[in-house]
Write a structure and sequence with these properties.
2 helices, alpha+beta, 7 strands, elongated, 7-stranded mixed sheet
Length: 129
Amino acid sequence: MYIVYTLHYQTFAVKVKNVVDTEEEAIEIMKQLALNFMSHEEGKRKARIFTETPFDTADILKGYILFSPDPSKVDVYHKDIITTNHIIWGDQQETKLNKIKAYSYTKVSEDNDYDEDILDDATDEHNLI
């Protein structure tokens, strides 16, 4: 049995999203949740997951970026460009890339027999700190 969850890096809130029987299902649901988040925030045309390091974000001016360095995790970054005005140097732009959220899964049991209420009980947000 596998649990698919999200971790919010600013608040350290963990939210269980789904409980599945196989690792393949967990990977598919994890990726779909990340893509759904991206589609909701940015639109479907921008929803793609980068898998190579370093990933090229030059074509993305502002917004969310999905990055999956390994199959068990998808990180969500927010890219923002900050422009500062200087009298002497002129306008300068600084790119900020903040990791804000992660989608992942973990194996919790060898057998697939579990109580149907486990997801209902686990969907409350829990703080790690």
